[in-house]
Specification:
Length: about 120
């Protein structure tokens, strides 16, 4: 089992920044990759970005390229999502997820999920 706890969400004005954190515990040695998803009201949950636990590979959805950065701190078992130049359309609940399966980052199946953290971009 892998437990995930997100933090760092909140209300921010357009153009502002936020950093989300996802602390992992449990069988973290079995994790291949971590991802950040988001789900806006009435929409499907979409993959925003992902990173292999080794840090060797990353993936970004086109909508966030150049604005969001994913990183991880192995010593702290924590993955971060730095979000800059935020837009109202970035408003969503953001979920951290972990995958134990090896494969291409955009296509992984994630078996463990955090509880989600709300990000609201509004003036």
């Amino acid at each position: 089992q892998v437990q995930l706890v997100e933090s760092g969400g909140g209300l921010v004005q357009p153009g502002g920044s936020l950093r989300l954190s996802c602390a992992a515990s449990g069988r973290t040695f079995s994790v291949y990759a971590m991802g950040w998803f988001r789900q806006a009201p009435g929409k499907e949950r979409d993959l925003v970005t992902a990173i292999t636990w080794s840090g060797s590979s990353t993936y970004y959805a086109d909508s966030v390229k150049g604005r969001f950065t994913i990183s991880r701190d192995i010593a702290k078992n924590t993955v971060y999502l730095q979000m800059n130049s935020l837009k109202p359309e970035d408003t969503a609940v953001y979920y951290c997820a972990a995958s134990q399966r090896v494969g291409a980052l955009p296509n992984l199946v994630y078996g463990y999920w955090g509880q989600g953290t709300q990000v609201t971009v509004s003036s």
